[in-house]
Each structure stands twice: as C-alpha cells, then as structure tokens.
Amino acid sequence: MRYVDLDATIGTLTGVLDPGPYLAKLPELGAELPAGAAAFASDPEHYNFTGQRCVKDLRLDGFLSEAGEADALELRFRHNCWKHEEDLVIRYQGVTDIRLEGASREELGPLILDEILPHQQGCTHELAFRPGRLTITAGDLAAVWVEANCPEAPKG
C-alpha cells in the first residue's frame, strides 16, 4: 500500500494500523478517482475502526465473475458479528487486472484495511488480508452494504 500504513508507530505504540496518511491525501486522490470509487473511499465510516461500516475485520465470502461479462467482478464480504450489522458487496466494472499475493482465495483471512488509488484505467483497489493481498484494477466500483443475518450478535 502506498499511503495506508499497516505497521505504523504512533507515540509509543508499534505495529498499529494507520490510515492517516491516506486520509490526508484522499481529497486530492478523490478528485482523480471514478465516482463510485471516490464515494466508497471517502465514506466517513470506511476507516473508523469503531464504526459499523469500517472494512476492517470483514471476511471475503464470495468472488464472482458475471456470466458473459469478462470484465465484471463481484466481491462479497461477510460481516464480523461483534462489529458489523451488514455485509459488504463490491461490484467492479471494467476489470483489467486481478492480482492475488501471499495466499490462495481460500486462505485469505480477515480484511485488515484497503486503499483505492487512481489509475489510468480507472482505479486500483488493494485489499490487505491476514494473510494475503488482493489488488483489482478496474474502471470503477460500486460498494453496497446489505442487511446481514447475525445469530452470533452480542446481547446488549
């Protein structure tokens, strides 16, 4: 990742996640991103670690290519019952590259964080998992949070 620091030192804490440099650069980057990617990246809850729509701790639950559409891809993420009330679905259009590193699809653990950057073909969406990394280059993306059934939700 170019701006999101997955192993930052903040004060006396080491090995912490710090999206701060990315968030500081996001107003400039957002102006160069396609509309859907810009909306998803700039959602105030996206990097709010205590927020219900933070991507941290989601699990990849589905990796689907649209039948007859070679350049379309859909990722489905399952919520973490202790943190989220919704699942996340991301649909990519104009996909030109998919790179998976450090793990197979089946071995990808929880999502750590992600980073969306402008690209000459639209945008790149890099997703860091524990373990593994997935990077998708696409014309744009649309992210939608959908109702989830969570039988393990904590009782309040």
Characterization of this structure:
There is one protein chain. The protein is mainly β. The chain has one domain (5-147). The protein has helices at residues 20-30, 35-41, and strands at residues 5-10, 13-18, 59-65, 73-78, 86-93, 97-101, 111-119, 122-129, 133-138, 140-147. The strands form 3 sheets. Strands 3-4-5-10 form a 4-stranded antiparallel beta sheet. Strand 3 and strand 4 form a beta hairpin. The chain is globular, with a radius of gyration of 15 Å. The N and C termini lie far apart (37 Å). 31% of the residues are buried.
In summary, what is this structure?
This protein is mainly β and 156 residues long. It is built from two helices and ten strands, in the order ββααββββββββ.
Estimated helix fraction:
10-25%
**Mean pLDDT over the full residue set:** 87
Largest pleated sheet: 4 strands, antiparallel
Order of helices and strands: EEHHEEEEEEEE
Q: Helix segment count?
A: 2
Form type: globular
Count of discrete domains: 1
The number of E-state strands comes to: 10
Largest sheet, order of strands side by side?
3-4-5-10
For the record, give the distance between the C-alpha atoms at the N and C termini, rounded to a whole number.
37 Å
Percent of residues in beta strands: 35-45%
* Helix/strand class: mainly beta
Instruction: Report low-confidence residues grouped into runs of 5 or more.
Output: none
CA radius of gyration is 15 Å
